[in-house]
Design goal:
Layout lengths: L1 H23 L1 H5 L21 E6 L5 E7 L6 E6 L10 H9 L2 E6 L13 H18 L7 E6 L1 H12 L4 E5 L5 H8 L5 H4 L6 H5 L6 E6 L7 H10 L4 E6 L6 H4 L1 H16 L1
Parallel strand pairs: 3-4, 3-5, 5-6, 6-7, 7-8
Antiparallel strand pairs: 1-2, 2-4
Amino acid sequence: MTSIWKLLIAGVCLYAVIVAFVYYRQSSLIYYPDMPGRNIVATPERIGLEYQNVQFVTGDKVNLHGWFIPHRAAKGTLLFFHGNAGNISHRLESIEIFHRLELNVFILDYRGYGQSEGRVSEQGTYRDAEAAWNYLIQTRGARPEQVIIFGRSLGASIASWLARKHTPAGLIIESGFSSVPAMAKRIYPFLPVSWLTNFKYDTKNYVSTIACPVLVAHSRSDDLIPFAEGREIFDAAPRAKQFLEMRGDHNDGFIISGSTYVDGLRSFIHENLE
């Protein structure tokens, strides 16, 4: 019995350590601004595109940085919310795709990412999204019906939150998760994540009350966010919606999917901007 009790106590202690780690390290498990680094490693000039550095301020006085990449014959503007790792300089391939689709592109770094100031948090990313929208509408003079909001991975939840507050021409959710607690249950099924999770990023809930058309893009081979998460988001959307099935893994699916991906975006974007 002594050995059994020792094993039991050791197991309980190990479980407690895991619970404490997950609880206190939540932020570092969600945000990766330093991977692969905060430095801007390239600009749109590398792919032959003119761009403008943009500095703007959030409602809580945090200075943010982004790029505005104009298109001479733009059909509209795409507001781009990227994933949880890296910064805007790691999204040149996507910027090039959206430029080929005849769109201006406005991409920003969240607080604590790239050249943006501050410390990242869930509510902070929502304030960043609101500030980016206000910049486009109030400073650039863009009309809401000429703006497509795009979010990938973590950015999909932020984009959905913003599209619920406003009414853009459309919302594109790529490789998104339904919520942080839902993902946590998949990763840590043995933990009481509903009690531990301080983050929500409730994409499924945000999408359920969105008034604009929605395109959900996801790959069956996504190695980080299961395909079922994308389907849950799609099912929650209440009105005009489309699903684009991609190929490839989480980070390279939009590249591997090739023309299927590009043509699917083109159809949705041009349908809702014209």
